[in-house]
Design goal:
Layout (H helix, E strand, L loop, with lengths): L1 H22 L1 H7 L8 H27 L3 H7 L1
Helix pairs in contact: 1-3
């Protein structure tokens, strides 16, 4: 459940980011020299980096939470 919710947020964030970068394409083109702002290889690499970081940010806390005994967690408060 934690991973599903985290991946949903990552997908929404990536889609908003890609849409925003395409919307400001002219500004990006004026700032970059020798690189196309719509270069699919660079965009896909950075998208995969963001995706990997997001999955790691969701995976490790979820893995740690599965190792906690539910009774101990409930009695903690």
């Amino acid at each position: 459940m934690v991973l599903r919710m985290g991946l949903w947020l990552i997908a929404v964030g990536l889609s908003i980011g890609v849409g925003a970068s395409l919307a400001v394409n002219k500004v990006i083109a004026s700032e970059l020299w020798g690189v196309s702002p719509r270069d699919p290889s660079r965009s896909s690499v950075w998208g995969l980096v963001v995706l990997a970081a997001g999955v790691a940010a969701c995976w490790f806390p979820a893995l740690r939470a599965t190792r906690v005994d539910p009774l101990v967690a409930l009695r903690f408060e």
